[in-house]
Amino acid sequence: MILLDTHVVFWLLLAPEQLSSPARNSILQARSTGERLACSSISLYEIANAVRRRRLHVKSTIQEFIAAVQAKLELEPLTAEIAICAADLPQPFHGDPMDRIIAATAIVGGYTLITHDGRIRKANACKTLW
Predict the structure, then answer these.
(1) In Å, how far are 3, 42, 47, 58, 122 from 28, measured between CA atoms?
(2) Strand arrangement, sheet containing 37-40
(3) What is the pLDDT of residues 55-108, one digit of tens each?
């Protein structure tokens, strides 16, 4: 399974040209082979909060946008194992709790995380692609 970071979810739906070629190709290959594509359920909060704060702009209501995300991707829930893993991520992993949860979701599930976030990629805590 491939896990998408929050910004990748947003770009996939509204600005696919923002995705790198390897990220776009991996998503297309996953779709063609039936491999699961997912995002952490915490990404729904991040998207809704960013829209509320006017940091992201959607052309529909936030409810419609979240419904579109749910129609295209599976949601990985926050579990106790993921919460513990996120809290235990070693330095130099940065302190953003949402990024820690997303990376921990990839670690616990053994998923590749597609992310543009250099701090996550540099930490080498999980397998990443950009």
Answers:
(1) 14, 24, 23, 23, 25
(2) 74-76, 37-40, 2-4, 112-114, 128-129
(3) 988 999 999 999 999 999 999 999 999 999 999 998 878 889 999 999 999 999
